[in-house]
UniProtKB/TrEMBL annotation:
Keywords, alphabetical: Hydrolase
Gene Ontology biological process terms from the UniProt entry: nucleoside phosphate metabolic process; ribose phosphate metabolic process
Superkingdom, taxonomy of origin: Bacteria
The species this protein was found in: Flavilitoribacter nigricans (strain ATCC 23147 / DSM 23189 / NBRC 102662 / NCIMB 1420 / SS-2)
GO cellular component terms, A-Z: cytosol
Nudix hydrolase domain sequence ranges: 44-175
Reactions it catalyzes: GDP-alpha-D-mannose + H2O = alpha-D-mannose 1-phosphate + GMP + 2 H(+)
Entry protein name: GDP-mannose pyrophosphatase
A matching Pfam family: NUDIX
Presence of keyword Protein biosynthesis: no
Assigned protein family: Belongs to the Nudix hydrolase family. NudK subfamily.
MF annotations from Gene Ontology: hydrolase activity
Cofactors, names only: Mg(2+)
């Protein structure tokens, strides 16, 4: 049985290729249970943010965008990676404004979760932006093409319970939002 006091020992580490959003690293790790070692891949990345933006009309702001990994569109909360040396809350405000044109004066941290602890070293920080209003034009990156979709809060809750959302960061943020 695995226990937290029996951490795996890193025997060596080898830097891998830069993969645009990630840098690969291979760590030779020793299992404390049997002393055997295995090469593990770690994807190093900047932390990320996403935002549950609630409008004065009690809708949640989503973006629909094409995701290359699944070759389909997803409906997800606005968000993205932190820029170099950027703090978390300014990044959340920036991502909301860039991807949706919405801004808010009322921010609350909902929590953070590991992006994918199986092979990634980063976290996603979830925020709530209440009374969010569209005030600006979108400022999308060259690789972004989004459609803004507002959905009433009660409908979002039904969609979450029905398994409609495919992006794990959207799911974890909505779970934290509805649990508060």
């Amino acid at each position: 049985m695995a226990t937290t006091d029996k951490k795996w020992k890193r025997l060596s580490s080898e830097v891998g290729p830069d993969l645009k959003l990630f840098r690969a690293r291979w760590d030779e790790m020793q299992n404390p249970r049997n002393e055997k070692s295995q090469k593990m891949i770690i994807l190093q990345s900047k932390d990320a943010v996403n935002v549950v933006a609630v409008s004065p009309q009690k809708t949640i702001v989503f973006v629909r965008q094409y995701r290359f990994g699944i070759e389909d569109f997803t409906l997800e909360l606005p968000g993205g990676l932190l820029n170099h040396d950027e703090e978390v809350i300014p990044a959340a405000k920036r991502e909301l404004r860039e991807e949706t044109g919405y801004v808010s004066e009322n921010w609350e941290e909902l929590g953070k979760v590991a992006s994918n602890p199986v092979f990634m070293d980063s976290y996603i920080f979830h925020y709530l932006a209440e009374n969010a209003n569209a005030k600006f034009e979108l400022a999308l990156d060259d690789g972004e093409d989004v459609e803004i979709v507002e959905i009433p809060i009660e409908e979002v809750k039904k969609m979450l319970n029905a398994g409609t959302f495919q992006h794990p960061h959207t799911i974890s943020a909505l779970v934290l939002y509805f649990a508060r």
